[in-house]
Design brief:
Elements (H helix, E strand, L loop, with lengths): L3 H4 E4 L3 H10 L1 E6 L5 H12 L3 E9 L3 E4 L2 E4 L3 E8 L12
Antiparallel strand pairs: 1-2, 2-6, 3-6, 4-5
Length: about 100
């Protein structure tokens, strides 16, 4: 079992992430590719001290990029939609 700081890479602060946070009380995270839903749930509960109801995951394929004549590819990554219990909240811009 990995430590929770190894599972959660970063929060995803995007327009869609803000929208699902307001409407469905969900938070988006970029997580390690081999993490499962149970590990993600435990990591979020321990790290942020909140109650997690549900976790949905999406494997995102990296885009192919071109710089001049050379082609490259961004790495694949995993996104987690974490649904928090009623009344629970994670605010990343608390002091701003």
């Amino acid at each position: 079992m990995k430590h929770y700081s190894e599972i959660i890479r970063s929060p995803l602060i995007t327009e869609k992430g803000t929208l699902v946070n307001e409407q469905a009380n969900q938070v988006l995270f970029r997580v390690v590719r081999d993490a499962n839903k149970v590990e993600i749930q435990r990591a979020v509960e321990q790290f942020f001290n909140v109650k997690v109801v549900k976790v949905r995951t999406v494997n995102v394929l990296g885009k192919t990029r071109r710089v001049g004549r050379s082609m490259g590819r961004r790495s694949d990554w995993k996104k987690a939609y974490v649904t928090l219990a009623e009344g629970q909240r994670i605010d990343f811009f608390e002091g701003a």
